[in-house]
Design goal:
4-stranded antiparallel sheet, 8 strands, 53% helix, 262 residues
């Protein structure tokens, strides 16, 4: 028994040493794996934050600006723009006429106007038929917002020009406003956009208003605008029931064409 006792102690000590080594080896990979997993997760979170549109880097190039309040016969209109990387990404009316029939006209016109602003990247948008006053006020406030953007160093015109350049018309496009023509019911003034020798847009920046003139203007001007673009000249038909407005419109349109070089 005495001779075997030291051997047992050696064997026990050796077994303990081997067990300790095995334990250390088994613990290290687990620790490394856990660390690698944590580092991987952190890297993924960082990448996700950079790619997210709500991340600081993406949001840094986005700004908003609100145009001046435009007064119309039926209430005020005010437009706010969101611009990212020099491009209008969103347009909205923070104020618009309301109450009575104005609610329906605002609901009809504002979404269309908002959509066209993003599409054209400018204030050169078409008035919505039946909501001429709201459309005019919208365009005034919109132009104010764009002017503020340009003053702040954000070029909102570049994307529009780049887009239009694809059709080969951007460099040739110009906007001309005709003379004010006085009619029995009020002044009429027409503004046209000409590109490639063709009228691409026409709108009345002034038209008779008040009383029955509101209805006649709302009825006549959209038709006259449309016909001016279709005809490409001032030889257009007068709108029945709005002869004075039609006559003034055609005179101002001819004046604008003369200024544009025929």
């Amino acid at each position: 028994m005495k001779k075997s006792h030291p051997i047992r102690r050696v064997l026990l000590a050796s077994a303990a040493t081997v067990s300790g080594i095995v334990l250390l080896l088994s613990l290290k990979p687990a620790t490394d794996s856990s660390s690698a997993s944590a580092q991987g997760a952190a890297a993924q979170e960082t990448a996700a934050a950079q790619e997210s549109p709500q991340g600081g880097a993406a949001a840094a190039g986005t700004s908003t600006v609100t145009g001046a309040v435009a007064q119309t016969q039926y209430g005020v209109v005010q437009v706010r723009l969101t611009v990212a990387n020099g491009k209008i990404t969103k347009a909205e009316a923070v104020q618009a006429p309301k109450g009575g029939t104005s609610d329906q006209k605002t609901a009809l016109s504002v979404p269309k106007l908002n959509q066209e602003v993003v599409a054209t990247q400018s204030a050169d948008i078409t008035s919505v038929s039946g909501a001429s006053y709201t459309s005019a006020g919208y365009k005034q406030s919109l132009q104010s917002a764009i002017d503020k953007m340009k003053a702040a160093g954000t070029n909102t015109a570049a994307p529009s020009q780049s887009s239009a350049a694809g059709s080969g018309q951007a460099a040739q496009a110009k906007t001309v406003t005709g003379d004010v023509v006085t009619t029995e019911y009020g002044p009429v003034q027409v503004r046209i956009t000409v590109a490639g020798g063709k009228i691409t847009k026409a709108d009345a920046v002034q038209a008779p208003s008040g009383g029955t003139s509101d209805q006649k203007t709302a009825l006549a001007v959209p038709k006259l605008n449309q016909e001016a673009v279709a005809a490409g000249n001032a030889n257009i038909d007068s709108v029945s029931g709005a002869s004075y407005t039609s006559g003034g419109y055609k005179k101002s349109l001819q004046s604008a064409l003369d200024k544009a070089g025929g």
